[in-house]
Amino acid sequence: MHGQVYGPHDPSTPSASTAYLATLEGRLTADGCATRWEDWAGVPVLVGRRSDFRMRWMATKLHLFTVAAAVPEITVPVVEGFTEQVTKYAKDTKGGLPVGLQNGVGAFPVLVSDRVDPAAVRWAEERQRVRFACMTRPVVVDTSRPYVGMYRGKPALGRVYATYFIEKGSRYFYGP
């Protein structure tokens, strides 16, 4: 597995998920992301967003969205559904030129819980999800262990962005 312990805490604390999201919000802000909280069908969702342009990305601008929520339980269907929601949200709210015209979308759909099916962690760690000009790396945070599972590899499709995703993922989801 490619996951990693993200730091010490008391997993029996009922607010472990809330504390993780507060820490994540601070890390996103410190990295220059605009953050806000939204209500998605009664669930508070943290949204972080930034855009970066690199010549080495074939003169492309990448719009990176980090969307995180605490949920009662994380299973494969839950993380799959949330990943689909985040992908659509990122594409719909990106603005500017359509995806693929010298710009793309990257997303970290992040679910946090103290009840996590190990199959959901494996699903998040197995690969990056790619659609036309949109790369998504789901993140599963198990506050009971503590453990973070996400894909940290360099896929063939979107390889030029892999180091960026690995660096941002390490900065946002793991740490002291």
TrEMBL record:
It comes from the Bacteria. This is Levansucrase. The lineage of its organism: Bacteria, Bacillati, Actinomycetota, Actinomycetes, Kitasatosporales.
